[in-house]
From TrEMBL:
Belongs to the TonB-dependent receptor family. It is found in: Cell outer membrane. The keyword Membrane applies. This is TonB-dependent receptor. Residues 373-949 form the TonB-dependent receptor-like beta-barrel domain. It comes from the Bacteria. Residues 55-165 form the TonB-dependent receptor plug domain. Residues 1-31 form the signal peptide. Pfam families: Plug (PF07715), TonB_dep_Rec_b-barrel (PF00593). Its main location: membrane. It is a multi-pass membrane protein. It comes from Bowmanella dokdonensis. Keywords: Cell outer membrane, Membrane, Receptor, Signal, TonB box, Transmembrane, Transmembrane beta strand, Transport. One of its GO terms (cellular component) is cell outer membrane.
Length: 984
């Protein structure tokens, strides 16, 4: 097979690209190009640094063209990548009760966003201090295509390239000018999205220049704007804070542990009652307005106020230029500026652990109260973020001949930084609140003052917790309100150089090789507000600064060795080898290699296999993060209503020895944990194996399909023990070292409930074991022409076979760290994930596209397979409410399975047979999108589209965080859009 015919074959396959951003094909072309001596153009394909004329390689690459992006109806890189079949649950603007600071990430294979490498024009984009890239800092209008390498590539690109590589290529051949406008909105009349772009460019024989400016605005959607998210758990009463419910026990009517009229209990103001009035001394006569708190009726429904879709505005400028200095040397420069402002909104701050003086004028109980709680709902919490990214790059590239060989070379420099300023509103100063709840009096002018009449506190206004929402005045808020300001900054400087050539000829062809060097510096910090550092922001997580950095030197080499060619059943057989040595200033060195084999028995069939070593260096945050407060959800084994306490005498003994009362019941469903960095962390290590084939039969023109099996095994995993694990390891397993990490509050000052865990230390560490992913990717693409137009059909499917612990232990077996494995998690929803916890077994995108003269249309179906979740919370709430019919919200409330635990004090696994484990099935979902386009005679493109054409609702997920659907699914509602592009 000649080089020219092979190139033609590859180009024909590459033209079979899918018709929408959710249906792409497995062929790619990288931007850097150089003419070969025989006139055949050579290009570098993502996943390799060697320029070659055959685009079919041993690694599967998914191509998303600018046309594909346009057909998707989406306006951000993150939204486009969220819907590819190989992406897992990833952070974005859509979240349940969370603050993302406007950050959008990609998470290939559900490995974690920091294990997906993001490149722009083949070079790294700046990451945040946690090691993951914010895709919202990459301007969409500057993009010509996106390539997704679905294989590890640490031997080529270094750290982070464990579960895949996203390479974003920018436009460099634009001629003329264009203006584009886009506007879209949900059929509920919210979530409006606008985008306006101006692009101008010129391409000449020796130079090119491009400038693009873009403004994009996304408006918010509130939880209360969708029925499914307007309550904590859809189907349950909105105000259930008892076990199984999700309403907050911290309410705008307060909770106070006190004795009134001879009755001791937790009291709350009756809704609609007056209670205590501002600027009036409250007496015991007001107690008739209070009643004992009922967890089945008096909880607070926080859901309507939260943003489901966070608003954001993005402004970007992009410019790049190329110039041919000589016939064999080209210069390239680029500059990017992106500014993004965004806001997250949550329900008003819950205030707990409040101490109220007996002589506070608003205290009708006439006794000191410890651990009171209150939620001032006059203003929600908001997190305003201002994020600015700069990137400047320059490169020289070219060719030269030496000793009858042609060499390709390039040298490059990239500087990039990202700064984030976060301003928080709706928060309160802990010291001032303590003063405002202390002693107080009414002065001679009838004004409420802090302190006693003999020793007033200047400037202080007493705070009224006993008058409900209407009892809080602006003067009270002005005294206690604070607006913490937090800063985050990360910076990267990168130098690289590469040189490649054909070393010598073998009978099957030339051996090509490239060697390179890279030097990189990364640094960053977080600077929390001084009040936050001091722990003086009431109810908020205390945080200490993070600061650090590192540098590294790397050398690498890659070679392509043709083994056989032009033989019977061996059109070609080719071996690719690569290796990279990385020397880090903070942990030492590592070497990673990969081996790839491409076998073409006949012209239309390519069989490929690869094995690669990979690594991920610990991020700045993982290494140097200060000790920050966290609030993970967990069950206290010492709570008298917990399963371990009731079923295990050893647990009861250990809890008693720790001073916990046998009648203690956990009130706070969240522990107070401290998380932090560890400068002694070592890198994660991975092995990736891929085997597959690409087939384009000659008897069906323009049909191609590919199948690829993969397995990713990651060891030395960087993470931290969960709060629940530490508590169980202490009280259930009896490991003293874990007990040393736990502190309890026996005074009741935390929330009026003596015995609650007040601090639990959970720092980063390397685990011997890690994660494993196994699956199959299938892509089918077919193009054909008729008298009624040109058609394209594309199907892109990702099948996840295994997701769980390395080594694929069965559920109940021990993993490499000696923990009890949960087994294969595919098809099970991860619970309580603010950013999404879907683990679909199958994700697939099917697209039909049509073009005829000036008209075009496409329809796309996105399929997400069913999952199951644990819904024990529904059964628990049903029992507590005395409404047994509610348990049927679960599709299988009587489901049982074996559970596994350690025999107390040992590492022997005990099987607990046929334990209650209610399950709920999340049915499969198909989203349909359609688009129609018209090319006007005056060079204008008009596009009209609808996403979620049939208004498909997400399935009910009762274990989702904060409301009843997992944000991995689309926001409920149809989304219609119109875009117009005028070219000049």
């Amino acid at each position: 097979m000649t080089t020219n015919s092979r190139l033609a074959k590859s180009i024909r396959l590459a033209l079979l690209a899918g018709a929408s951003a959710t249906a792409f094909t497995h062929h790619s072309v990288m931007a850097q190009e150089a003419p070969a001596a025989d006139g055949v153009e050579k290009i570098a394909v993502t996943g390799s640094r060697i320029k070659r004329s055959d685009m079919e390689t041993a690694q599967p690459v998914l191509l998303i063209s600018a046309e594909d992006i346009s057909r998707s109806g989406l306006t951000s890189v993150g939204d486009v990548l969220k819907e590819i079949a190989t992406n897992g649950a990833s952070l974005g603007l859509q979240t349940n009760n969370g603050n993302t600071n406007g950050v959008v990430r990609v998470d290939l294979r559900n490995c974690g966003a920091n294990r997906t490498l993001v490149l722009v024009n083949g070079r790294r984009w700046v990451s945040s201090i946690n090691g993951a890239v914010d895709l919202s800092t990459i301007p969409l209008p500057a993009i010509s295509s996106i390539e997704i390498l679905k294989d590890g590539a640490s031997s080529i690109y270094g750290t982070d390239a464990i579960c895949g590589v996203v390479n974003i290529l920018t436009r460099d051949d634009f001629q003329g000018a264009e203006v584009a406008a886009y506007v879209g909105e949900y059929d509920e009349g919210d979530g409006r999205r606008e985008s306006y772009t101006f692009t101008v460019g010129s391409t000449a024989d020796k130079s090119s220049v491009l400038f693009s400016a873009n403004y994009t605005k996304q408006e918010q959607v509130l939880g209360g704007d969708r029925e499914i998210s307007s309550v904590p758990i859809f189907g349950l009463p909105a105000n259930v804070s008892a076990a199984g419910g999700r309403a907050s026990p911290t309410t705008p009517y307060g909770r106070f542990s006190a004795t009134a009229n001879g009755v001791a209990g937790v009291w709350t103001l009756t809704q609609g009652a007056t209670g205590c009035v501002a600027n009036e001394e409250c007496t015991a006569s007001a107690l008739s307005d209070f009643h004992i708190y009922d967890a089945n009726k008096d909880g607070y429904n926080f859901a309507p106020v939260n943003y489901l879709l966070q608003p954001t505005e993005t402004r970007s400028l992009y410019t790049q230029g190329t110039y041919e200095l000589t016939d064999n040397i080209r210069a390239r420069a680029e500059a990017v500026y992106v500014n993004r402002t965004s806001e997250a909104q949550l329900a008003a701050q819950p205030l707990g652990g409040l101490a109220i003086a007996a002589d506070n004028i608003y205290n009708p109980f006439d006794q000191a109260i410890a651990g009171g709680s209150f939620r001032p709902i006059v203003a929600p919490r908001s997190y305003a973020a201002d994020n600015t990214t700069w990137r400047i790059g320059a490169a020289l590239e070219g060719e030269f001949e030496l000793a009858n060989r042609e060499f390709n070379w390039d040298v490059a420099y990239v500087y990039s930084d990202n700064s984030l300023t976060q301003l928080k509103n709706g928060f309160f100063n802990a010291s001032r609140m303590a003063t405002a709840l202390g002693s107080s009096h009414i002065d001679s002018n009838g004004v409420a003052r802090c302190g006693t009449s003999a020793a007033p506190v200047a400037g202080c206004t007493p705070f009224n917790l006993f008058g409900g929402p209407g009892g809080v005045t602006q003067d009270m808020l002005d005294y206690v309100t604070v607006a913490p300001r937090n800063l985050e900054y990360s910076k990267m400087t990168n130098y690289s150089a590469n040189i490649g050539t054909e070393l010598f000829e073998l009978p099957a062809g030339p051996v090509a090789a490239v060697v390179g060097y890279e030097y990189r510096r990364e640094s960053g910090y977080t600077s929390p507000d001084p009040l936050t550092v001091a722990g003086q922001v009431l109810g908020d997580n205390a945080a200490t600064p993070t600061e650090g950095g590192y540098n590294l030197n790397e050398v690498y080499a890659e070679a392509i060795i043709p083994l056989l060619a032009d033989m019977t059943m061996v059109e070609s057989l080719e071996l690719s080898v690569s290796s990279r040595y990385s020397d880090y200033s903070n942990f030492g060195d590592t070497t990673n290699s990969s081996y790839k084999l491409s076998y073409r028995p006949i012209e239309e069939l390519l069989i490929r296999a690869s094995y690669g070593e990979g690594f991920r260096a610990p991020s700045i945050q993982e290494l140097y993060q200060g000790q920050n407060d966290s609030r993970p959800a967990a069950t206290d084994p010492c709570s008298s209503n917990s399963v371990p306490f009731q079923a295990n005498a050893d647990v009861r003994t250990r809890c008693a020895a720790d001073g916990v009362s046998p009648t203690f019941v956990q009130n706070d469903p969240q522990f107070r944990a401290k998380v932090g960095g560890n400068p002694d962390l070592q890198p994660e290590e991975a092995e990736t194996t891929v085997f597959g084939f690409v087939y384009s039969p000659q008897f069906v023109e323009n049909l191609g399909f590919s199948v690829d099996w993969y397995r990713i095994e990651l060891a030395n995993f960087i993470g931290a023990r969960t709060a629940g694990y530490i508590a169980n390891a202490c009280y259930v397993t009896g490991i003293q070292s874990y007990c040393d990490l736990i502190q309890r509050d026996f005074t009741g000052t935390l929330n009026g409930n003596p015995g609650e865990i007040s601090q639990l230390l959970s720092l980063n560490q390397n685990f011997v074991g890690g994660l494993e992913r196994e699956g199959v990717d299938i892509n089918i693409d077919y193009r054909f022409s008729t008298e009624y137009g040109d058609f394209r059909i594309n199907s892109d499917t990702a099948i996840m076979l295994y997701e769980g612990d390395k080594g694929q232990p069965n559920r109940g077996e021990l993993n490499d760290d000696g923990d009890i494995s949960e087994g294969n998690l595919v098809g099970r929803l991860a619970t309580n994930q603010s950013g999404g916890g879907a683990r679909n077994r199958v994700k697939s995108n099917l697209t039909l596209a049509w073009d005829m003269e000036e008209w075009s249309a496409s329809i796309t179906a996105q399929y997400l397979s069913s999952m199951v979740e644990n819904c024990a919370n529904i059964v628990t709430a049903s029992n507590g409410l005395g409404q047994p019919e509610l348990r049927n919200l679960c599709s299988d409330p009587d489901h049982t399975w074996d559970t596994f635990s350690f025999k107390p004090g040992t590492i022997e696994v005990v099987v607990n047979e046929d334990q209650s484990a209610p399950e709920n099935k999340l049915g499969s979902v198909v989203y349909w999108d359609m688009q129609v386009g018209w090319e006007a005679p005056w060079d204008m493109q008009v596009t009209l589209g609808i996403r979620n054409l049939f208004d498909k609702e997400p399935p009910y997920a009762y274990s989702a965080f904060a409301n009843t659907y997992d944000p991995s699914y689309r926001l409920p509602g149809r989304f219609g859009y119109l875009s117009v592009t005028q070219r000049f």
